[in-house]
## 1
Amino acid sequence: MIQLYNVSKVYDNGVPAVSDISLRIAKGEFVFLIGPSGAGKSTLTKLIFREQLPSSGQIFFRGRNILRFGPREVLQLRRQIGVVFQDFRLLPRKTVYENVAFALEVIGRSRKEIRERVPAVLARVGLSGKEDAFPDQLSGGEQQRVGVARAIVKRPLVILADEPTGNLDPDTSREIMDLFEVINRDGTTVVIATHAWDIVNRMRKRVVALENGRLVRDEERGSYSYGA
Amino acid sequence: MALNSLWYCTRQACISLTRNFWLGVASAAMIAVSLIILGAFLLVAVNANQFMRIVESTVEINVFLEDDADVRDLQHRLAGLRGVEEIRFVPKQQGLQELKKAFGERHDLLSGFEGENNPLPDSFRVRAERAELVPTLAQQISFFPGVYKVRYGQEYVEALVKVTRWVNVVALGAVVLLGAGAVFLIVTTIRLSMVARQDEIGIMKYLGASNWYIRGPFVLEGMVVGLAGACAAVATLGAGYYYLVVVLERLPLLFFIQPVTDPNMLLSIFGGLLGLGLLMGGVGSLISVRKFLQV
Ligand SMILES: Nc1ncnc2c1ncn2[C@@H]1O[C@H](COP(=O)(O)OP(=O)(O)O)[C@@H](O)[C@H]1O
Ligand SMILES: [Mg+2]
């Protein structure tokens, strides 16, 4: 699904955020990108989403080199990837329903499709009955559920989440991670950047560890610990 | 899909317009002012043009005589000129008569100039065969003895051309300056709208919205502002021009000015102004969204 070959990213200010990373993520995988703050996790997710371009190396999505994509293909790429943010990024003046519907609206889906899909997705993330609430009337966990609903409503092939539990307490974090696991079980590839080691250890998923921009470990059913 | 997007676009544009209402009004007013000047300038230009064409096509030369001129001798000389088609002697009483006619209802204004008090000289009215012969003929005639003054329409045209050249420069300069100012105001208006929706725009990009989907409402907003300004300008100009035409028709003193009332000409001027307003709004908003949307 996603392949990176010797990818490096040096920001304009000279900071080498990602150095010579090669990585394959297969369809349907559940992958944690872990590492301390500043390790390059966010940068890596931005590279996959083509929000940033690498300084060197190649990135493939479904066998196609995304660095060669024109604007239309970049849009297509982004429509196949659902993103979830640490700070949720919901629109405060829209209701839960409208926030999720927005994801379909902006890519031009029909009203009929929106009317069918949105309630189903909200039910799936456990938010039935909250359709008309505004984000500030929800708990952090609920807000992130809206964020997840918004990411999956367009049925993306990949979910890309950058510290999705960074603003949540441990119990709520666990619930959100369980939600990702359910989504992954239906065949969606899930990539989560996090430094929440307790959760990572508990879930026994593939773990790709970064340190100072380098890939230091890549383990199936891995755990989060430092050192060789 | 297209319909949904159009609906979204319109709704967002309306929301933005109400949010930045006064800035929108200011931008529209600025556009209106620049278009009014441009329009007024165009109206003057087409009228001057028509006036010049009428004057230029007249082949008549007025030859005013000294008091002691030898009319018979002059008549012979005039008849001997090449390119003269017709010569008519206009004694001063008749000249006054004709002037009174031109004054129409207000001929009483001339009542003090009867008989002895008539300030007009006797004159000849010479018709040339063709309009382009007029300047040469006029010059030749001016050297004849007993000729006080020679007058013909093209003289006025030359003076008018000189004046309009300056008017053109000043008016066009003003239009360009004001137009640039108006576009700048639109850019500012749209930028404010975009700043107000910055978060939303950021999220839309992550959700895979196309640039045009994001830009659409802002471009529409700019075009609405531009069109509103243009409508105000056309309404003002239309009313003003109509009033002027009506007044001119009542004012016999200006009998020689026939304002342009050709509906095709006027419609194309007003239509052009509307299009230009739309264009200014569109261009202004495009400048705004282009800078803002670089990913
Ligand atoms: N936009 C940017 N411009 C310059 N440097 C950046 C930018 N984003 C991140 N960095 C730097 O790149 C390194 C990796 O950052 P990041 O990818 O955010 O790591 P992580 O998400 O693992 O904390 C850090 O040193 C950070 O300061
Ligand atoms: Mg980060």
## 2
Amino acid sequence: MVLEALEREGVELIFGYPGGANLPIYQHLPDHPKLRHILVRHEQGAAHMADGYARACGKPGVVFATSGPGALNLVTGLATAYMDSVPMIAITGQVASTQVGRDAFQETDVIGATSSVTKHSYLVTNINQLPRVIHEAFHIATTGRPGPVLIDICKDVQQADAPNVPPERLEIPGYKLNGHVNLDHAKAAAIALAEAERPVVLAGHGVLLSHAEVELREFAEKAAAPVGTTLLGIGAFPVNHPLSLHMTGFMGTGWNLKAVQNADVLMMVGMRVDDRVTAKLAGFAPNVKTFIHIDIDGSEMGKNVRPQIELVADAKQALKAMIPHLPQPEKSRGTWLAQIDAWREEHPLKYTHSNGHLQPQDVLIDMYKRCRNEAIVVADVGQNQIWAALWWNYDRPGLFLNSGGSGTMGFALPAAIGAKFARPELDVWCVAGEGGFVMTAQELSVAVEHQLDVKIVLLNNFSLGMVRQFQDDFYGGVRSQVDLTHMPDFVKLAEAYGLPALRVDKFADIGPAMDAAERTKGPFLIDFRIDPEANVYPIVPLGKTLNDFWEAPDQ
Amino acid sequence: MSEDRLRVLSVVVEDGPGALSKVSGLIRRRGFHVRAISVGPSREPGLFRMTLTVDSGHAEVDQVRKQLERLVEVVEVEDLTGHDVHSRELVVARVAAADLSDLIERGAKVLHSSPTGTTVEFAGDGGEVGDFVEDLRRHGVQDVVRSGPVVMRRTA
Ligand SMILES: Cc1ncc(C[n+]2csc(CCOP(=O)(O)OP(=O)(O)O)c2C)c(N)n1
């Protein structure tokens, strides 16, 4: 019954793990050869795989888990998807409906435990609800601002039978979709931006989710307005474009932050404007007279920054509506763009190439050369994530995946596996620190079992690098519980799992190791032993404004 | 608590086992605080109406309505703060005094009386009910229960 409903929704792939409370579903799985099931090694891995799958191909990722510990192991993965608006369907087994509330074996209030990290959730206690619920769940997960939806199905319901027809028409009275663009506001926004002296556009994940990259580019070029992206918005605008400001936020590029802090009109598209973007809120974009905010979720309007012009709409529709109303840009625009070019010269991304240690940037620059604008790169969390974001060099959208909103260590490997399942034709690179990598390393078995071409670039700095950097710079230099000297031998670990691996600690060995990775079919791991003191720059000290960013020291 | 952080909302929710916990969970995790609540069936079968008085905490005040609207269980939210409304609360009290003529003059109704005391009810807006409860002290109040307000716009 569940499985038929999933087939009807077009599901092809499920990441899951069986247990007592979902065995009735698993019993029937072999009867559905169109549903391919990937057995993970930990439910968190399943959630991140489904997430990576969804981010890579846009279809909702589907996860199965059993009740109690199985479902709870999904929580981090659900939260990760929820924070980043990723469509996902989690189907969890629950104890029989007559057992609910009796503290039955492996009973947990899964709805209670997940309602803060899901877009919506259902407890199904009656078979007659099931066809409608599954149909609704896919609709809610994939429309509007996407997000994970959880369906907790009692075991007796999994065993029951009923006519398997969903209602013809979806009627969800409390679910209203935005997307209707207010034309007056669109026009006002276009005029405000074009007539600004110092306009800046920032693009977030919403631009990618609505596939509005073409419109964004057309808009920016016509308005002669520079465009930066958030960490999750990377790819929404070509980084090599003359109008590109690259990444914004408290680890954004110097020229981006200068532009934001000096802008007089700031348009924010498909983004939440969280604290990682604004740094100290009171000092964020202090010269802006008109904030324009476009987002499909009305609750984002004024949540952090109060816009003068708001468009509660899909980014693509909003930009399309605005473009025809763009007047000729202000004459002074040349001066503003020249100023930005000067800032770009003054505050370039830089690092110390030769201090005797292998530098993470050297590794990433080599990797990105091989990506040729068309590989998927999945980053984990920490320094590795920001380096991977800053040295990204694509002109094409949608190929950089990471856990932005929730910053979930352990995301990269399973998400890369999910992405490879979604887009088998593309190369997939997984960039991770050794700390995050070991949090979900058990999923290497999945990569080996399915011989997935996932190339793992481990940036191994023998510590929880990002935390170590914060301690050094913002917490009195006290290095507390960040040492990771005692870690497995990653080459041997890979061998134990059944994949080839190499260790690299010299610049000269980067290329040959990467060649080997590219030549090898199936997964490959390279343990890059990088400079243990390498830091992320620029960075805004905690509690400071975007004006106060630190740059890489000159050597 | 500052008055200007208080929002009075009339919220129509689906009648389901999860609706109240989803609403209250949202209020807690967004840093809001419920000051008063009353719930009852609405005119439409399958839908319930909640009248909530919510302190928006450190959030922008309009976030209370906007966040509630995001819940799929929530069908409609009307922010009645500052509008011209009928706002009615109910209080039921048991008092020791035998002479209740002044309370009855104010509009209280006797529900039950016995040699040990009298049970009265009174309805009014928040101020009136507050004054009434104050007054009860002089009558040897034994127990008081008070509802949250139910609120309706004066004009549609
Ligand atoms: C699950 C989880 N726990 C803790 C953190 C806090 N945290 C953020 S970055 C970081 C260090 C990551 O170290 P590593 O994976 O080695 O990557 P690096 O920063 O060295 O590149 C930590 C502990 C987190 N983001 N996620």
